[in-house]
Design goal:
By secondary structure, the protein is of the alpha+beta class. The protein has two domains: 174 residues, no CATH class; 201 residues, no CATH class. It is built from twelve helices and eleven strands. A five-stranded mixed β-sheet has the order 5-4-8-9-7. Strands 2-10-1-11 form a four-stranded antiparallel β-sheet, with helices on one face. Strands 3-6 form a two-stranded antiparallel sheet. A hairpin with a 2-residue loop joins strand 8 and strand 9. Helix 2 runs antiparallel to helix 9. The radius of gyration is 32 Å and the shape is elongated.
């Protein structure tokens, strides 16, 4: 009976306008969050073994420099200059092996061996469990990280041409390598175990502790200056990085800077889209409040009479509060449905670029929608109650 009395003067057109505007705003916000979470892995390929925000730097090798014997190694002054840059968090030097090393492996009745090279970086740049990435003098096995493209070259090139079985990362991890190390008139065979594959570093990594011991024992007496530097940066999209590298003739070994810039622009674009969605939601929220305030104003006499009859302010406010919450909830449900439909339209394209995209990965977007729903509904409830108290 109370609802039948108070629903007079309700403007369906005003509520429909709020509903549509709020639905558009919520869909834009949720879709922005979802699109960013779906697309960002294309530009931010994770490497579980190397710190995320890093850049590998080398010097440009020119024809004149090669003919004149100009060194491509970094001097101590250049390393200190890099460390002093505002975008630099930490700097590490690649330490090459100063001895000869070859590797052999046996599987499928075949024996293969090849000459290889080893390098190391400071252990704090390598994100591997401490038990897996360590070496002490006398240890039989040496942990190794190799580039993932080496495995791809074997599986899709060498193995197919020789009718050999293709190998997974798990299978390679179980294979023990025979490492033949020689130098300074000494030689030794050690076992190597591959503990990971890197998508970013185009080198074969071993622990720094092993490299220090092996270089001291089998290497030369002269300490080699690093020809490659690994830099941890606070923001790969910082334009000062590219400008500094260009001014000093430095190059990056991968597209990390380009990917960082694209990711930054992606974040900016998504931020702008979400800001527009929030503005639309705020305007629709304002429309609803005006509609409710106008409705309460038109029903002032009825509200006062209801209070005099013994109805509490909370009881009188409840029909309007239920109405706004019901509309907001309907907006949330339809927004989630539209999000699923729209995501289904572009997920097919993304699945070709991102392996293993999660078809049900809309949890974060739905949480954003629920937060907006709770915030708007709570504010509506409080605002209606205060307006009723002000009227009576």
């Amino acid at each position: 009976m109370l609802w039948k009395l108070l629903r007079q003067h309700i403007s369906v057109a005003q509520l429909a306008g709020f509903f549509i505007a709020n639905l558009c705003g919520m869909v834009i916000v949720m879709l922005g969050v979802q699109f960013y979470s779906d697309v960002s892995p294309v530009f931010e390929e994770e490497d579980s073994f190397i710190k995320k925000d890093y850049v590998v730097v080398t010097k440009k090798v020119s024809t004149i420099g090669s003919l004149s014997g100009k060194s491509s190694a970094f001097s101590s002054r250049e390393v200190e200059d890099i460390k002093s840059q505002p975008f630099t968090v930490e700097v590490g030097e690649f330490q090459p092996a100063q001895f000869k090393v070859s590797a052999g492996v046996s599987f499928g009745g075949m024996n293969m061996s090849t000459a290889m090279f080893l390098e190391s970086v400071p252990d704090n740049f390598v994100d591997v469990k401490a038990d897996d990435w360590k070496y002490v003098e006398g240890q039989k096995e040496i942990p190794i990280i190799i580039p993932k493209n080496y495995l791809n070259l074997y599986n899709f090139g060498f193995a197919r041409s020789r009718n050999l079985p293709q190998l997974s990362e798990g299978m390679i991890g179980m294979v023990s390598l025979d490492l033949y190390i020689s130098g300074n008139g000494m030689s030794e065979m050690k076992k190597g175990r591959i503990v990971g594959f890197s998508n970013r570093l185009n080198t074969i990594l071993v622990p720094e502790s092993f490299m220090n011991l092996a270089n001291h024992k089998y290497g030369g007496s002269n300490e080699l200056k690093p020809s490659r530097i690994i830099i941890e940066v606070d923001n790969p999209a910082d334009e000062r990085i590219a400008r500094f590298f260009g001014d000093n003739g430095y190059e990056t070994e991968d597209n990390k800077l380009d990917a960082g810039k694209i990711t930054w622009f992606l974040k900016m674009a998504v931020g702008v889209v979400m800001a527009i969605g929030l503005v639309i939601s705020a305007l629709s929220f304002y429309i609803l409040l005006l509609s409710i305030y106008l409705l309460l104003q038109k029903n002032t006499d009825k509200l006062e009479n209801l209070i005099l009859m013994g109805y509490s302010a909370s009881r009188v406010s409840m029909p309007y509060q239920i109405l706004t919450v019901a509309i907001n909830f309907a907006v949330l449900v339809i927004a989630v449905f539209l999000l699923i439909v729209i995501r289904g339209m572009y997920s097919g394209v993304l699945s070709d670029m991102i392996q293993g995209i999660d078809d049900g990965g809309i949890v974060v977007s739905c949480m954003v929608g629920v937060i907006l729903f709770l915030f708007v509904s709570a504010y509506n409830i409080i605002a209606i109650r205060r307006k009723v108290n002000a009227i009576i």
